[in-house]
């Protein structure tokens, strides 16, 4: 599988839910320094159903990117603090008190998925015939 131009064969792909709604979204976790550093820099634009979750992360930039993104800023409980839509290449995102993770999506996806401040996102791994919420493993 290829997420945002980055091979993720060794990286588990996560799913996301907003409240009770499971989103049609494949999330690649960027949990190490280098995976967060490279993110989507120099990569082709993500597909409509692809996201990149940067954690820990308080602020983002789009330097080295060739496409606009939506940025969804989350606190430690997964509550959406802010959504920045259409963040153009060569820009820095905002700073939001309590932010510790940022979900990057293709521009327009946050609105299409109906993501709004105050909602809570949860991430889970779909395993054979069951789902394991990542909160159970300390994420």
Topology of this protein?
Layout: E1 2-3, E2 6-7, E3 15-18, E4 21-22, E5 26-30, H1 33-38, E6 50-54, E7 69-74, E8 80-87, E9 101-106, H2 109-112, E10 121-127, E11 130-133
Parallel strand pairs: 5-6
Antiparallel strand pairs: 1-2, 3-4, 3-10, 6-9, 7-8, 7-9, 10-11
Give a short synopsis of this structure:
The protein is mainly beta and 139 residues long. 7% of the residues lie in helices and 37% in strands.
Structural notes for this entry:
By secondary structure, the chain is mostly beta strands. It has a single domain, classed as Sandwich (Jelly Rolls), CATH 2.60.120. The protein is built from two helices and eleven strands. β5, α1 and β6 form a beta-alpha-beta unit. The radius of gyration is 14 Å and the shape is globular.
Features:
2 helices; five-stranded mixed sheet; disordered N terminus; 139 residues; 11 strands; globular; four-stranded antiparallel sheet; Jelly Rolls; mainly beta
Helix- and strand-based class?
Answer: mainly beta
Q: Mean pLDDT, as a whole number?
A: 86
Q: How many helical stretches?
A: 2
Query: How do the strands of the widest beta sheet line up side by side?
Result: 5-6-9-7-8
What is the CATH superfamily? Protein of unknown function DUF192
CATH topology: Jelly Rolls
CATH class: Mainly Beta
Shape: globular
Note the gap between the termini: 23 Å
In percent, how much strand structure appears in the residues? Answer: 35-45%
User: How many domains in all?
Assistant: 1
Order of helices and strands: EEEEEHEEEEHEE
Helix share, percent: under 10%
């Amino acid at each position: 599988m290829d997420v945002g131009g980055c091979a993720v064969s060794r990286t588990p792909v996560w799913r996301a839910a907003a409240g009770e709604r499971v989103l049609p979204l494949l999330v690649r976790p960027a949990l190490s320094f280098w995976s967060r550093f490279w993110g989507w820099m120099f990569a082709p634009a993500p597909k409509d159903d692809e996201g990149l979750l940067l954690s820990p992360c308080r602020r983002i930039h789009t330097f080295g990117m060739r496409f606009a993104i939506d940025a969804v800023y989350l606190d430690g409980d997964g509550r959406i603090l802010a959504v920045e839509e259409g963040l153009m290449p060569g820009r820095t995102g905002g700073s939001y008190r309590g932010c510790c993770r940022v979900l990057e999506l293709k521009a327009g996806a946050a609105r299409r998925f109906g993501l709004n401040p105050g909602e809570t996102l949860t991430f889970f791994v779909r395993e054979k015939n069951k789902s394991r919420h990542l909160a159970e493993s300390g994420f």
